[in-house]
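USER: My hope is that you can spare some time for a protein that puzzles me. I am handing you a single protein, as its sequence and its fold in token form. Walk me, if you will, through where the backbone shape changes along the chain. The protein I mean follows directly.
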Amino acid sequence: MTETTSGPARGSRAKGSKANNGLRIERIHTTPGVHPYDEVNWERRDVVMTNWRDGSINFEQRGVEFPDFWSVNAVNIVTSKYFRGAVGTPQRENSLKQLIDRVVKTYRAAGEKHGYFASPADAEIFEHELAYAVLHQIFAFNSPVWFNVGTKQPQQVSACFILSVDDSMESILDWYKEEGMIFKGGSGAGLNLSRIRSSKELLSSGGNASGPVSFMRGADASAGTIKSGGATRRAAKMVVLDVDHPDVEAFIDTKVKEEEKIRALRDAGFDMDLGGEDIASVQYQNANNSVRVNDEFMKAVESGSKFALRARMTGEVVEEVDARQLFHKMAEAAHVCADPGIQYDDTINHWHTSPETGRITASNPCSEYMHLDNSSCNLASLNLMKFLRDDTAADSGSAAWGNMSFDAERFAKVTELVITAMDISICFADFPTEKIGETTRAFRQLGIGYANLGALLMATGHAYDSDGGRALAGAITSLMTGTSYKRSAELAAVVGPYEGYARNAEAHRRVMKQHGDANDAATRMDDLDTPVWAAATEAWQDVQRLGKKNGFRNAQASVLAPTGTIGLMMDCDTTGVEPDLALVKFKKLVGGGSMQIVNNTVPKALKRLGYQPEQVEAIVEHIAEHGNVVNAPGLKPEHYEVFDCAMGERSISPMGHVRMMAAAQPFLSGAISKTVNMPASSTVEDVEEIYLQGWKLGTKALAVYVENSKVGQPLSAKAKEEKKAEAPEPEKVVEYRPVRRRLPKGRPGITTSFTVGGAEGYMTANSYPDDGLGEVFLKMSKQGSTLAGMMDAFSIAVSVGLQYGVPLETYVSKFTNMRFEPAGMTDDTDVRMAQSIVDYIFRRLALDFLPFETRSALGIHSAAERQRHLETGSYEASEEEFDADALAQSAPKAEQAGQSAQAGQSAPKEEVKDAKDTQRAASEPEAAAPAPREAHNSTELMEMQLGLNADAPLCFSCGTKMRRAGSCYLCEGCGSTSGCS
């Protein structure tokens, strides 16, 4: 294990603390004198990621270097999401070694600078062990670490933020600004609006206050705009309101009323499908909403008594409501549109380590991080399957069970390593606001967690909804958090406790005892979980002993996050605390293509349950054909539950999800990101029972989702036709047609010569004197040739479209990334590579005529902008760079191109009715049908097998259907998430 050595204090530590000389780091996986990179086989691969709906290439980088055991999906995700540098330039990372070195060497350097290690040799072991663990997919930091650490841009390491807002216009406007800056960086934030006075209270001027719900509109619109601005991820946010706020009913109703609006507009013929052009008019869709309830309210619900809503300024009772009716209203809203979720305030603050500084009032967007206002948390997750051994003998500290063992000792060592690294990151991290930076450095909140729990349980023959499964999950969670706080106490001896510890020492030690008591009281079920509980018990005893002596380095240690993108990076079958989605998955193949496979954990589970190889083969074949185990040849019915999944023929009951959360919650500093899936047949009373049991079982937060409850889902073409047939014919139909706007006789223009893959050509782009691009002429090959004729026809078609009001960005989005010969290198410094002549032409037109924000959202940047991104982390020029010389240089080209107005003019609002209907039908996704005809990921494959339509949005990056990951959504195709891991 890791030890500390005594000696003079050095490094960064809290004032007045005593410190030792540094940590002694013990090897876990590595060999002295051998670098981890030298122990694996490396290979070069080509990463080409396409949008399957239109065939366009979303991302391409060839010749990247990865270990041969990394899956195609993991390689694609890491290359496209985490490699830094402009694609096609020498500065672009092209090897996993570069990515790991960029991050791990930064951590080592910071650890040495701040006195974490006893010697340079210990620092080297730390670096090698950390690199080995990432290389072998044993753990992963959250995405911001891979985005930012070791680059020239701000070293933001946190994915989760909590803001605060007070009852003043200045504070509300600060909220808008701070939230926007966090969204711009691709992260999410949450906050509680309960300090804002209600619409039933008076302002100092005598008028009525607007209330928090009104201010939510502005924040929602801001999030929606920033979301579509080309960031790496969608904006994610959480809005919380206390149950005793006088506007709580209006808060509960916000999304319900918007769902009614969607229904009305959809029935009137507007495009309200997911991603539809008219869905943007719907409000409050960019946030998860949660009501913060207290024990007083929940007891009033049980007894059927009244509950007081109180003024924010005076605390006086504004009105009394029936607690059961209000609770029913919450459940009714969640049943209709999945919001609001519920957070249990007294439970949350009962486990709060720093109550003397302030209460916990809110959470991050996915509900796993809960701590002080204006704070942040950086996350990392362990891959539990990497600690499952298939053998018959257990080493010291391991738990043997049949032919399975969970390596508890190695799990604890890796946990210590990761916690050390996570704490080091706070020493050099940057934060989006000064207040968040101050709070995070003072309390050093960490969020270690895990992924692949569902796969681990299945592989060991445990049903997810079983006492044995919950016991193993609880034991692992307890060992992880106990070990984390033990290491935190050891770090406190070396570099000092967190600044806020002295004021909160008594409360912090009380919470540590609560964790230890919960560990002692937990039920031991079998030979697999019992030794893990024993190791956890020892860890909690060390926590209390060392904590009393040294204090703690971190106010928080653990959460269970969604582990979306990083779960794909680690090749995990399941995310966070979730069970498996389905038994059959999609697997991408080297060289392109994909195949469907039965989960690798299924054969392991069958082997553990005692089935012979021939029986295993027959059962796996049955699952491959039917997607479930029902009536599988030779499989005992009592073993069916082991293979229950989140969805399908045998889906886990809603209470099964709640009971699993309750099993892990007492051993976590924070909470759990998870949505309780409920079948379409669920009632409002079922939702009430889930919310009530969540409180009784001690969870900190819950969200539910009733299948097919939301209106904004893709509709089948047939359904649309039926609705159209049912609608009565209007008495009068007025059709509006666009008007062609011809260019004047004299018009400004640009003529560009170009070469694509050796083929030469000329393009002339003429513009309106005051309103952007109006026509394009293309010349290639000799007059009279087929290519010249096609280019002439294509030019005329595009030009006429532009003159009828088709925005240039529409053409750019459709024709860029179109791939055909000739293709390859160009002679244009801004567009070095082109997939085709058409790809080049519209990239050049975008650079010449589209505003920066529009083309940046399409991923089109000039060479200067890409270089600026390498140097500063931003494509945009600073104000200082817009000097007189730059303006003088750009003026002639702007004048020549006629760019006095934006090139991307809007199309007429009213279009030809038949054309609009045709366009909608053509854009209808295949997933709209009850079961898609062709699957492109595991979610759609499950839809085909089960004959149902999963309620999930389409990925905004690649167009495939996403799947749930905790309280968020994850795209298996490209790794994009709607959350914060």
In short: The chain has a mean pLDDT of 83. The first helix runs from residue 72 to 81.
